[in-house]
Amino acid sequence: MAFVITQPCIGTKDSACVDVCPVECIYEGDDQFFIHPDECIDCGACVPACPVSAIFPEEDVPADQQAFIAKNRTYFGL
Ligand code: SF4
User: For ligand 1, atom 4, which residue shows the shortest CA distance?
Assistant: First the structure.
């Protein structure tokens, strides 16, 4: 399990999550930030840091945001 960044990040890209992640597993893409699913230690620190509530544990990603699970993985070639 890993945390996943979803739709609200697009057009926001606040980067507060990057600053709080203890293992530096959040990377900047063209349109949003992405969490490396194998590097994330599931600490949850990024969730309250996000001003647009874009980050969810993988099992809690809303139904209409499920595509972002694959999008985060694809960004890293996984
Ligand atoms: Fe980083 Fe923790 Fe968020 Fe994973 S859950 S991306 S380790 S801050």
Answer: 40
